[in-house]
C-alpha cells in the first residue's frame, strides 16, 4: 500500500491528536492531558507528557508566531521524531530526556524506559536551544 501527499504511509493512526489548549502553548513544548476531556496543558517538571505541540490555529506565519492561545486547537505529536525546546542542562546524543518547567526538555535523571519521555537525537551544548528527540510514549 503506497502513501499519498495527503496521507503519507509513515503516518499512523494516533500519531497526532487535535486537542484544545487549556493555557497558552508554544510549539515545541511537551504537553500533558488537561483537566477536561479533549484538552491539553503545558507539562511541568518531571511530568509525563503525552507528546509535543507541533501545530495549531495561528493567525499568521511569522517566525515569532508560534504560540497557540487558550481555547484554540493544538496538534500534538504523540510518537515519532520531533523538535523540542530545551533548558540549559547538558543533553547528550542518546541520553534520556524528561520534562522541565514550562514544558521544555531537560537532561533526564531517569535510567529506564519506563520513566523517560524521549531519547535525544542531538546534543544541546549545555545551552537552551531546539533539538530533535524520539518520543517514547504513544
List its salient traits:
single chain; 138 residues; mainly beta; five-stranded mixed beta barrel; five-stranded antiparallel sheet; 37% strand
Mean pLDDT: 83
Strand order of the largest sheet: 1-4-3-5-7
Radius of gyration: 15 Å
Biggest sheet, open or closed, and with what strands and sense? Answer: 5 strands, mixed, barrel
Uncertain parts: 1-11
Helix proportion:
under 10%
Summarize the structure.
The protein has 138 residues and is an all-beta fold. The protein contains no helices and 12 strands.
Structure in words:
β9 (96-99) and β10 (105-107) form a beta hairpin. The strands form 3 sheets. The chain has a 5-stranded mixed barrel with strand order 1-4-3-5-7. Strands 8-12-11-9-10 form a 5-stranded antiparallel beta sheet, with no helix packed on it. With 138 residues, the chain is mainly β. It is globular. The chain is built from no helices and 12 strands. It folds into 2 domains: 16-78, no CATH class; 83-135, no CATH class. 0% of the residues lie in helices and 37% in strands.
Task: Set out the fold topology.
Elements: E1 16-21, E2 25-26, E3 30-33, E4 39-42, E5 51-56, E6 67-68, E7 73-77, E8 80-85, E9 96-99, E10 105-107, E11 118-120, E12 130-135
Parallel strand pairs: 1-4
Antiparallel strand pairs: 1-7, 2-6, 3-4, 3-5, 5-7, 8-12, 9-10, 9-11, 11-12
